[in-house]
Specification:
Length: 375
């Protein structure tokens, strides 16, 4: 048994519990599948590839764009509308195949493709090139994408009772939804099956596990993003009225105090909110869908930004996703025709820069960008 290096926040007392088995950098843990890696970028190639680094995802692939180069990794991401995430050092983009419960990672510099069987539907960036996820019955698993060792248990967790009582359902797993240096935010799902579920939150710190309970209006489809202060998170989700209609809601929660602030209600008879972002300048944006509660009703898609009087579109036209502050570029996924209320929104990826526009891909679901530069 080894002990992790001394650090601040939730990982200060992390223990590494797993055994080590042989692996190479482009293999997904023990028994993983080899993915041939392209040659690592040379310093000259890095200098010749200026511009924003970002990633996008379709139903069938994860791609990283760096300057004029696009590197792709195949995947079966299905119906998921989750954003692409980067490691804290910006060197890897990753997304989870929800059907196979496999994490797919793509190297920005070394162009490696890593597939990690994780038994998870969500994963978060922990530190450096390390990613983490929850594994039942109570372990935080992690893997350093820049290393050669397989995924291993990092911390054993016994979740205390939720301060919000169960309301007729049973526990149906948990997932890590966001992370900072101070806290891991975990959602434990109470379910009766089908569309009914309630999310109970926990903040995992260095010295304690804080049961935060349920947040009003954030019952199903919970997603989260960390705020700039390291202990406050923005939450997006919905409360269902029926199998076909619910109300999307957004709130912030301070993990240190359990203080909750509800943001303005979304427009629409039926609505959904997901994929929140909280930028360093304090702005909060969310992806939204709204539709009428009628059979076959289409849904209208857009990304909205919090404003003084409620919510305002981030762009001049509806977008599935848009990246903020991308080095003098506007990177957006322009929404296509309205989709079925249950469908995953797709669009055309367009990069606008210097008065010119370039179409990079079709059927794009989500975007992501590193919070640090990658050289």
């Amino acid at each position: 048994m080894g002990v992790a290096r001394k650090a601040s926040g939730w990982r200060a007392r992390t223990a590494v519990l797993g055994a080590v088995c042989a692996a190479v950098a482009v293999v997904a843990g023990c028994g993983g599948v080899d993915q041939p890696a392209l040659p690592r970028l040379t310093p000259a190639e890095e200098q010749a590839a200026p511009g924003s680094v970002f990633a996008y995802r379709t139903d069938a692939e994860l791609a990283v764009v760096r300057g004029g180069e696009t590197v792709r990794a195949p995947g079966s991401f299905g119906y998921s509308s989750a954003a692409v995430t980067f490691t804290r050092d910006g060197n890897y983009a990753f997304a989870v195949e929800t059907s196979s419960k496999t994490l797919v990672a793509l190297g920005v510099r070394d162009r490696s493709v890593t597939r990690i069987p994780c038994e998870c539907t969500d994963a978060v960036a922990l530190r450096g090139s390390v990613v983490g996820w929850w594994e039942e019955p109570g372990q935080i698993m992690s893997m350093d994408l820049a290393g050669s060792e397989p995924a291993a248990p990092e911390r054993e967790i016994v979740l205390p009772d939720s301060p919000s009582p169960l309301t007729g359902g049973g526990w149906d797993g948990a997932k890590l939804v966001a992370a900072t240096d101070e806290f891991l935010l975990l959602a434990r799902v109470e379910s009766r099956g089908l569309w009914w579920e309630k999310s109970h939150l926990y903040a995992i710190g260095a010295d304690a596990i804080l049961p935060l309970g349920r947040v009003p209006g954030i019952d199903s489809g919970l997603s989260a993003a960390a705020g700039p202060d390291g202990h406050t998170f923005v939450l997006a989700g919905a409360t269902a009225r029926s199998a076909t209609c619910g109300s999307g809601n957004v709130a912030t929660i301070d993990a240190a105090t359990n203080g909750v602030r509800a943001l303005p209600t979304l427009p629409g008879e039926c609505s959904a909110a997901y994929s929140p972002r909280w930028s360093a300048d304090g702005s909060i944006t969310i992806a939204t869908r709204k539709w009428a509660d009628a059979v076959g009703a289409p849904s209208a898609v857009d990304r909205l930004q919090s404003a003084a009087q409620g919510w305002a579109p981030v762009g001049e036209h509806p977008v599935v996703d848009m990246l903020p502050g991308a080095q003098e570029s506007v990177i957006e996924v322009v929404a296509g025709e309205p989709t079925d209320a249950r469908g995953t929104p797709h669009g055309v990826l367009i990069v606008h820069k210097g008065g010119a526009s370039e179409e990079l891909a079709k059927q794009v679901v989500s975007l992501g960008a590193p919070t640090t530069t990658t050289g």
